[in-house]
Amino acid sequence: MQMDKHNTNRPRILIDFGGYEFKNTGDTAMLVVAVQRIYEMYPDADLHVFTTEVDRLKKYVPNVKPVTPEGRFTWGATWNILGGFHKLVPLQFHHNLLRLEQNIRINWPLLAKRWIIFRLTRRGHDLSAMHRYLELIENADIVIATGGGYITDPFQEHAMRLLQTLALARKQGKPIALLGQGLGPANSSDLLFWAKNIFPKLSLLTLREQKNSLSFALQAGAEKDRIHVTGDDAVTLANSFTPDRLGDCIGVNLRVAAYSGVQQEQLNVIRNIFGQASKELNAELLPVPISFHDKDSDMASLKLLLGEENAEAPLDEAVKVIKQVGLCRVVVTGSYHAGVFALSQGISVVGVAKSDYYRHKFEGLADQFGGGCFIVDMDKTEFATQLLHAVKSAWDNAESERERLLTAASEQIQKADSAYLELKKIIEEVMDK
């Protein structure tokens, strides 16, 4: 599928993001808001979005056109340029060969394209998806990636593919942008290589927090005058459903995953704390799921914490989860976007962290909202006592924190709106050429 014929009122935009399967309501919310903002600027924009689930894409962001990531996988597949040559080279040099392949794709894309087509056609591969992928980049006015916390070690494979797409676009003279990003932590030499390759070339970078992400961006070479700290794009969507008053429930989220550091056996301790808090505060516990991926489904954890019968609600859409959060006075969460959905509606949060990945996220979130976000570290010896105390403190102070949190949300929305006007200027400069 090619982009529509160019005209001065219809920009052609290729959009990458963090959740091709639409199994993370936070990723979905960020994409929805980004697309809405672009359509407000350009109602007839020709938008193409990467996805593996076409029906879900059309459900959440109608009128955009789906792009299968299969073409990018074919283009970036390991050894599709050097072929079997790596078998003749000692294993310790394979990393250098892979870096060479990546540089050939980026710096000599036409040569790489011809060679890949020659090699894979001889082997009977269907290259139609790869051709569409390359044509979309060639025909785009701008290539952007919407919000997420994927430029980090736990998701480096996705991040590197995304950054390489931006690199390919920039090599062809296209402006590139990263929007609503939470950056790091990252120690992978490969991921840092691509970040340092791409960040200096960004036309626009918007960050969802400055406490950790800003230093990452500057160290990776992003130009300071092109960086905007806007808050998370999902703040806009969540804030639009703010209830008239605080609810009387406790929202609950916890995720067992390698990148969260939380182990299943630790849920029993936390379940007891939730039960005690519920009893002392006379508050119902409500599930607030964010991820529905098979490997790290929040529903699996919530069933253990709340019981099967209390975690069966069909909350697989961002708006449904946001409205569920709106019934709460406090949300206790091990997932970042449950915190975003709450704070954006003036609802206090207790963030439970056991990995640097989530410590960074919650620290940044607390900094953006200036309070109303307690962080409890599971590695502390007094974790159980501290968690119960934090929940009760958040509950007691919820009303006094509410207006300040809503003001902070409003300020972030305004900053994000301003940043998208910068995006509009970039697009108009391209279209005027």
Write a structural description.
- With 433 residues, the protein is of the alpha/beta class.
- The chain has two domains: 12-236 and 413-432, Rossmann fold; 238-410, Rossmann fold (3-Layer(aba) Sandwich).
- The chain has helices at residues 25-41, 54-60, 70-75, 94-107, 109-122, 128-139, 156-171, 189-198, 213-219, 234-239, 267-281, 298-306, 318-325, 336-343, 356-369, 383-432; strands spanning 12-16, 46-50, 65-67, 142-145, 148-151, 176-183, 204-207, 227-229, 249-253, 284-287, 328-333, 348-353, 373-377.
- Strands 1, 2, 3, 4, 5, 6, 7 and 8 form an eight-stranded parallel sheet that branches. A five-stranded parallel sheet has the order 10-9-11-12-13, with helices on both faces.
- The longest helix is centred in the last third of the chain and has 50 residues, at 383-432.
- The protein is globular and about 70 Å long.
- The relative contact order is 0.12.
